[in-house]
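Final report, closing paragraph on structural work. Over the funding period we assembled a curated collection of sequence-structure pairs, and we close with a single example.
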Amino acid sequence: MFGPLPRSFFLTCGKGDASTELTSFDAALLDAGIGDTNLIRMSSILPPAAVHVDRRVFPKGSFVPLAYAERASSEPGTVISAAVAVGIPEDSLAAGVIMEHSCVGELEACEKRARDMVRESMEALRGLKIKEIKSIGISHRVLRVGTVFAAVALCP
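Its predicted structure, as stored:
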């Protein structure tokens, strides 16, 4: 195992527009409040009994485990969206599920898709009852090169 089991999580999102995909991604991370950290992309499992907290500020250079959705486009005028959803099980000993989705299009459909995937994964695939689904998302109309980013970050 890599470090202690996370006990909390938060949702965050951001958008950016710049001259390249990488710099617009960087701008989206800064907008989401995690631009000065090292992201460790993980698969989509929420540790048992993890609790939702307000967005944390990590020391610069921290390694931050997270599940995220992102979408970039260099087509001016295009609307792009990214969303994440977290399924919290009724049974506090069971693991929850995180789902990510991004698309060309409006936020409402993008966030709905992430929430629907949580339901399928927890209820149909795992046979778990859902206590709550939390979600967050963001849309952006591209100016030059745009990126949207939505994430669930795990914390000690």
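The CA atoms of residues 37 and 61 lie 5 Å apart. Residues 8-155 form a domain with the Pyruvoyl-Dependent Histidine Decarboxylase; Chain B fold (CATH 3.50.20.10). We thank the funder for supporting this effort.
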